[in-house]
Design brief:
Layout (H helix, E strand, L loop, with lengths): L1 E7 L4 H10 L6 E7 L6 E5 L2 E5 L2 E10 L2 H15 L8 E6 L17
Antiparallel strand pairs: 1-5, 1-6, 2-5, 3-4
Helix pairs in contact: 1-2
């Protein structure tokens, strides 16, 4: 089992969700997060005053899939749907999951997905 975490631009969430659903991947957790990478924040004007936004709003998507093939499918779908070609498009992280348990039924591992 693999856990895929993707940090994307907020306005790309619907595109990414639709791309994942089209590939048969329906379960996901979505969080609003803030951070920065190479873009190092930016300056904005508000009522004539300039201020620095150090942490930029992003969306974090977390999904767990049962096989390496599903993981690659999800990675491809996310990267294609989230890409704008501009700085700050985001990152995708993949890690191994050793055990999963569905609390309600007691099912474990791939049966819990």
């Amino acid at each position: 089992m693999k856990k895929i975490e993707a940090i994307i631009k907020p306005f790309k969430l619907e595109d990414v969700k639709d791309a994942l659903v089209a590939e048969g991947i329906e379960g996901m957790t979505v969080s609003e997060v803030k951070g920065y990478g190479r873009q190092q924040g930016h300056s904005e004007l508000y009522r004539g005053a300039e201020y620095v936004v150090e942490f930029i709003p992003k969306i974090k998507i977390e999904i767990v899939v049962s096989t390496d093939e599903y993981a690659q499918t999800a990675i491809n779908a996310i990267s294609e749907a989230a890409k704008t070609g501009k700085i700050g498009d985001g990152k995708i992280f993949v890690s191994d999951i050793s055990h999963t348990l569905r609390i309600r039924t007691g099912e474990s591992d791939t049966d819990a997905l």
